[in-house]
Amino acid sequence: MRAVLQRVTHAKVVSDGVLTGEIEKGLFILLGVHRGDDEKDADLLAEKIAKCRIFSDENDKMNLCVNDVGGGALVVSNFTLYANYSKGNRPDYFDSEGPERANQLYEIFVHKLKKLIPTVGTGVFGAHMQIDTVCDGPVTIVMDSDVLRK
Length: 150
Known about the structure:
3 helices
């Protein structure tokens, strides 16, 4: 499972003209599910993300996690995080988990994250969405559950 975290001052997602998730200060998270991922991957990433210290303290050092600053998280599924672009100019997505299982693991991840971060919004799994973010820093971290399993 792969997550791209962005520290934001505001983020929202709209699907079919309907606002489905919005946060102020916090983390915007794109989440991709790799073929063969399981619940352990969702747990590892959720735990690490909730504790990730990428918010500035009073000395302007990145020393605080999202909960320390009263922030939230906005999670959007994104199968393209597993794009294979090694051949040709059109990526393939064969490494992404199939839609049914990917949705299950996306929901498990969101459920776990909601236990760790009080405010969590989401997009609509598999939908075309418009995303509006105001990145803060910018601070962008790519996390992969395979790295956390080692």
